[in-house]
Specification:
- With 413 residues, this protein is an all-alpha fold.
- The chain has helices at residues 21-24, 26-35, 44-75, 81-105, 108-118, 128-165, 184-231, 241-293, 298-337, 346-359, 375-382, 384-394, 397-411, and strands at residues 366-367, 371-372.
- A two-stranded antiparallel ribbon has the order 1-2.
Amino acid sequence: MKKPLFERLRSAPLDNHSISSLVASDYFYRIAFFLGWNPPREGFFRRIYFLLTFTTMLLGIVGLPLGLTLTYVKHFSRFTPTEFLASLPVDVNCIGNLIKTCVTFTSMWRFRLMNELISPLDKRCVSPSQRLILHKTVARVNLIVIVFLSTYMGFCFLNLFTSVLSGTAPWQLYNPLVDWRSGYWQLWIASLMEYVVVCIGTTQELVSDAYPIVFISLFRCHLAILRDRIENLRRNPELSEKENYEQLVACIQDHRTIIQCTEIIRPILSITIFAQFMLVGIDLGLAAISILLFENTIWTVVASVSFITAICMESFPCCMLCEHLIDDCVQVSDALFHSNWITADRRYKSALLYFMHRVQQPIQFTAGAIFPISVQSNIAVAKFAFTIITIVKQMNLGEKFLNNKANAGEVEP
């Protein structure tokens, strides 16, 4: 029987023991494979596959920012305010995409290493409640990746058709091969070429933004399973003190494995989120200016809103998960303190004290080793958008820009 394409989006039955932590990153690795970031392990196809990797990297981190920059140099006078403000946030976001893409691409080995380290923890899921936690996490993570994919690709799709229907190229990338102003079919050909390039850059950004969701969700999943196991320590009267001690040691080892995985992801998470924090306020401010200060059709507003949604999804879900991860660490510590340890022997209590000291240190990530990755930090950097809007309104830059464009149009023959 053929498996459905989106079978991972539903929580599998508890008797399905094929569900593992690796399955939670299934759709993430599928997207990375089509992008050229997840090569086969061996064989002739691996060499051919590197051509795809080279092509997507060339178009995404070189072709896209270069095309946007050159079109400002060559054809800036041809931009209307709406067209310019639809293109400029994408160009600004390319700066962050360049950093995030290079860091994430060169760190794909870290994701595979985390999968290898965390997969043995699945064997600890023996009770139905623990299997349920794992199965729900797998379905939820894959669903979030699909939501990210739909949102990011929706931005590209809406910009393509709203621009073409209004008679302009969506981002007006510099294209020496096809001039979209020459005719109807040239417009469609140039627009589709732009669409492919921007989709590649957007997918690169998607992978860079989705990996924190995938792996932090896995950390939370196994912390929840660990908490469930801690709550049941020394609850089974049929187990000896030696067996109870072995269960506690297994919990300590699993917690150490989770900490080890967080240390693997910490360097790349610090860089990618810091790059995003530096640009999120600018991107949101430029998109809001386009909507509030210039004339728009309903379709261009929808396209701008889709861009704002995609920008918010680049950092907000990750920040929210990081805060939940801290709460999960506190809950594990509380569960250990309230576990049935009072009547245990001395060796058990000594191990428990060591474990208590370890779990009381929460897992906290920082962006650029400067400020914590949290919702509060995300809101603080997003507020810069209001600063940009205020500056533009007080200096009347929108009206000056329109007047300059009108004067330039009068001068042109």
